[in-house]
Specification:
378 residues; alpha+beta; Beta-Lactamase; five-stranded antiparallel β-sheet; four-stranded antiparallel β-sheet; globular
């Protein structure tokens, strides 16, 4: 198949997985192949606790290495803190975090990646919170070498669709669901759900959706059409609904998370799932619907203290990683051991941290971080 045919098929599978989570391992395997990767996963990482949780993966990483990663090596993985500075939806490879030659000298590479023949791990942030981030990541095998521009280009083609599918899957939290019973399945979920045609005309709504319309603070039904009170949001919703009729790929990056503001100032977000292709076509055809619109209250969009510090002082991912390690474990030798890098490397980054933060002692760095993480510290 041509690239466009492969992409069209893959996007359809991605959106089907939003409603049928058991499809995710196959979707991730197909995604890895499409970008010339070895394996893929959906994970959550906490930069503060240096921990992580695996949602779905392709099963290509041996169970013992998977266990070792979450028990030990997630704290040594340079990518664990990279999401703090990463732009949502943008692929980040090892070379974007630190010099690749430096990466090859880390304990993480020598003890975990190299024994498996892994050369790189390219991640994309799907959603951030104050504690961590949900990530889509693809491993690159040494036979392919580190990530190249072609891999990045292909990842950019699928990341928006994976992000939309993952966010919708989280909103409706379906363990097992048949696409042709979508309306019945989501009637009991707390998020408002509206099935709409290409002109945003409502053809079905769940109980939460009807309640939102009755209240009228966030959404209205104007001439049968779903209409946010915010004019810019209405335009965005109309555009993505019209695109949904043309198929999954047409939706692209639009409408992944349309911000909605209620009259009382409450913030919500809308996610649009196209229903004109794949297994979802059965659900859409029942109601002559082009898309399903899921609306729920938005989480507070508050950056983490680590992100605030990094952006304020213009820190690189590695400098931020060293700074957090200094706060957590102390001196240079201990930081080098904790991060699996040379003491000379730690000293180099420490010097840059002193310069950028206008400090000259490690205790000053600890106090600086404390001021942002604990407002009671002076």
């Amino acid at each position: 198949m041509s690239e466009s045919e492969q992409l069209s098929t893959l996007i359809g599978e991605i959106y089907d997985a939003a409603l049928e989570p058991p499809l995710w391992p196959k979707v991730l395997a197909d995604s890895a192949r499409f970008v010339d990767g070895f394996s893929a996963a959906l994970v959550f990482k906490d930069a503060t606790k240096k921990s992580g949780n695996l949602y779905y993966d392709t099963g290509d990483i041996e169970p013992r290495y998977k266990q070792l990663y979450f028990d030990t090596y997630v704290r040594l993985d340079p990518s664990t803190t990279s999401h703090v500075l990463a732009e949502v939806g943008e692929p980040i490879a090892t070379a974007d975090i630190m010099p690749y030659d430096e990466f090859l000298e880390t304990r993480f590479y020598k003890e975990w990646a190299r024994p498996q023949g892994l050369a790189d791990f390219v991640t994309a942030v799907l959603e951030k919170s104050t504690t961590g981030a949900a990530l889509f990541g693809v491993f690159r095998h040494e036979r392919h070498g580190p990530a190249d521009e072609e891999m990045r280009r292909r990842m950019r083609l699928i990341i928006p669709h994976i992000r939309r599918a993952a966010l919708i899957g989280r909103v409706i939290d379906l363990k097992t669901a048949e696409a042709d019973t979508l309306a019945d399945t989501v009637d009991g979920v707390s998020a408002g759900m509206f099935m709409v045609d290409a002109s945003a005309r409502i053809v079905h709504a769940n109980a939460s959706g009807h309640a939102m319309l009755a209240q009228g603070s966030l959404l209205r039904a104007v001439g049968g059409k779903l209409a946010p009170n915010d004019a810019s949001a209405e335009q965005g919703l109309n555009e993505v609904c019209a695109m949904a009729e043309r198929g999954d790929a047409a939706v692209g990056v639009k409408g992944i998370a349309i911000p909605l503001t209620a009259i009382d100032g409450d913030h919500h977000v809308a996610h649009v799932l196209p229903l004109t292709s794949g297994a979802r076509r059965r659900a859409g055809s029942t109601y002559a619907a082009a898309a399903a619109v899921f609306v729920h209250k938005a989480a507070l969009d508050t950056p983490s203290p680590q992100e605030v510090i990094a952006k304020l002082y213009k820190l690189t991912p590695t400098e931020l990683r060293v700074l957090l390690a200094i706060v957590e474990v102390g001196g240079v030798p201990e930081v080098a051991e904790a991060l699996g890098i040379a003491t000379s490397t730690v000293k180099t980054h420490l010097g840059r941290l002193f310069h950028k933060t206008n400090t000259n002692r490690q205790v000053d760095l600890v106090k600086l971080v404390a001021r942002y993480t604990n407002p009671l510290v002076s």
